[in-house]
Amino acid sequence: MDGNGAEPQRHFAYGVLYSTIGAVADVEDWLDENCASDWNLVVDGLDESLTKKSLRIMFEHEADKLRFISEYARR
Predict the structure, then answer these.
(1) DSSP state, 7?
(2) For the chain, how are helix, strand and coil distributed in percent, rounded to 5?
(3) Residue 36 in this model has a pLDDT that exceeds 90
């Protein structure tokens, strides 16, 4: 909290677009377990069959973004 008792505003400077046919909850679980800093995930779109999801994931620290790409997105 800042001096006024409010939550400080987070700055998410590092982003990645990621598409998946898997569950968004699986991505969120991985982020919770593996990111050292805060992150934000937004579903950016769905294909016509509502199967493939386009996700915009923003990270507070670049190291978490790079870890996501190397350990999750490329498997």
Answers:
(1) P
(2) 30, 30, 40
(3) yes
